[in-house]
Batch of 4 targets.
Target 1
Amino acid sequence: MSNGRVMIWLVAAGVALLWSPGFAWAQSEASFAAGQGSYLSVVAGNSLLEVDTVSTDTIVGSGNGGTGIINVNQASGSMNDQANLRAIALSLDSPDATGTTAISLGGGAVLGDNQIDSTRALRSDVIDSSFQNSVGIIGVNQSSGNMNTQRNVLALALGGGAATLTEGELADLRAPNSLTQEGGSRIDTITNSFSNTQGIVQVTQSAGDLNVLGNNLAISLREVILR
């Protein structure tokens, strides 16, 4: 048995930089801000046998009233690759200045040559009464299934430039996989959540197997004046 892997690379150049896993932030009070990122998720050559297993991911009463950037990954299943991957560039200029803001984020997933034999597996992903009355960017991935690749991604540019996020840069490759299932249950639910929340919300859930999931978003706002 071998595990899948996630390789993530994020970098911002020419600006002051604050970096943490899965998130790149670039800011300049002059006239230039830029960020660039790339990632690759690979789940390949794995074999899994499960019998009478119970896998549950649960978020209940969490993240309410939150502000800023919230990233959550849960995986009670096996051999899942999860990511949130935020890259943000912000240029703060005077009203008369010519600012340049640029950001790009690309990558993809490879899912192939995997084998799963599942018998009477009980799986559930649950989000309940959570992330209400929040403001900001929220990304959630849940997987009680196996060998799934998940992402949320976000490319955001403010000021004088543009964000780049194309399907070509987010290419997915799916090679032949083998899946045998007998009995069991698979449940993904979101209830009483995200009400009165403002901003960007991205969620994926997978109680199944061998799925490639993602939310992709690119936003570019020009001539933004922040006080």
Target 2
Amino acid sequence: MKGVSQNPNTSSLTLEKLTAFGGFNGSDGWETQKFITKHNNVSEVALLNLIEDGDELMSVFVSDCKKSPDSVLRKLAIHESGLVRINVAKHINSSATTLVKAMGSSQGRSYSEDIKIEISKNRNSTAEMLSELAVSKCEEVKEGLAKNSNTPFELLDDLSKSRNEDIKLSVAKNNNTSSSTLEKLSRSKEIRILKAVAKNKNSAESTLNLLAKSKNKDVQKSLPKQYRKS
């Protein structure tokens, strides 16, 4: 079975039959299952077969599988294992509905904060979900929110007032940050923040004119050509 799972030419139907058959015992059995989750032809049916008994290690493998569809991830979103739920929270294929499940099933349980961090960074998180995470005191959650292009501009404005310069930098780089917030950030003493404001497409003309007065060469290079000092 291990050889079949490693063969790149093995069809999705064969993998489905292999996972339905079961009988994965010992270290070879675990390796076979892991190879199946990484196979280019692995299907939704095969992945569902692998997580049928709820085994934690197998669920970790499947939740980490790049080809796992949302239908599979949704089943894993309520898994007992925090490691599985973290993988679901960070997965590119997890829908907003699945992310809500992962977050809701994690309240008061292990890895709850880690799951919030991943959801704050996930591009499938909705504006409403991200706004709910804003009450978190975790700096990593706030930084994830500051980086996420789905974060509402009102929340980005709040985050721009943080004492954490990394969070301010992420807000300055965010394409959803409003011109008024960028104008406030343009008064920062941090050169990296000024550079980010200069590059942001939402920066107003008045903000760019203000930055054009900077004597810093890096800030000048970050400005659109028409605003740079000759």
Target 3
Amino acid sequence: MERRNADMQESEGTPSGDATPVDDRDRQIHELQSRVDELQRSVDSAKDKLLRKAAEFENYKRRVENDFANLVKNANEGLISALLPILNDFLRSLAQGKEEKGSEGFYRGVELIYTKLLRLLEQQGLVPFDSLGKQFDVEYHDALLQVPRSDVPPHTVVEEVERGYKLNDKVLRHAKVIVSAAPEANSGSVSRNSEDENGEGN
């Protein structure tokens, strides 16, 4: 009985030491969780920057590849452009040769050379485009002259003086054309007045 009382007194006189370790553990857990959150934010930020840089590099790579492909594709642009006047000379010679008699053999020879040269240039991406009968377009045509026409709408190409060409979907040379204009409104009345005056004079 005395032993039990002594133990109870000893137990009551000893202060509890469990509160401090629990608080320390909670604080450490909180600090560690804060550190984990901070590291996670750093990882997310670094990952976002890495993805952005990867996307920028991919765009740059694609742009460089496209530029290089266009450079290779149009590498002969200067040479082909210099050959276009020769094509025009061939076309003029062929147009005149049709009207001359007794030179069929020479005409066929010139036509054969022109066909071979044009085929060779077409293999390099050169393509002539048609203009006659089409609406005037500054992207494709250079207008040399406007002539009043009542049989076609205004701004229609009525004559192709010099053929236009594209190289790999790019206009290499504009076609030189003659374009229609609306006829003058008083042209008919002037003609009728002139006929009336001539009739009265007679």
Target 4
Amino acid sequence: MTAAMIAAFDVHYFRDDRERSTSPSPLGRGQRSAINCGSFLSGKPRAFRAGGLHSASAAAVLFREYSDAESAAEYSAIIREVAHYVAGQFYRRELPCILRLIEQLDEAPDEMVIDGYVTLGKKPGLGQYLFESFGGRIPVVGVAKSRYRTAPGIEVLRGRSKRPLYVTSAGIDPHLAAERIKAMHGPHRVPTLLRRVDLLARQGAR
């Protein structure tokens, strides 16, 4: 059984020395806006070193079936004043960006896919914090391109690639999650719609 609406998210970071408009502008089937993103715990923007603000380009694609070749809707946002990277605490930087982007959606998705890990062995990862942000009501699937030494992700081979993707999950059996990622559209290692959300996030960071 597939979810009624699935959302895949990706975030790219850049140093922003330019002035950007804060008014929303259209982006294909969704929208784009500039918003502030503070610390996950405090909710307040952090101080930044000289040389420009650290900003993020967050993107989401929505689709109804894992086998879909095209998105049903797309959203992106330029997010200013993101927290600095802290080793082992990646979620502090990325989670607020995803949550702010979800605020643009008409309603919360039925399932979410992130670029990264849900769990890091016995430690929670970005996906687990996202899962808990919605009270454990929305399943989260993590798709990582690199192996993390303590994360027992299920290896998924796609197409002719000999390099696996690593799938973890919360709120859904990890083997079922892995099957869904394997069944996603596209002949390449990274599924079509995950490549699409990555492209949208990269475009915003240019």
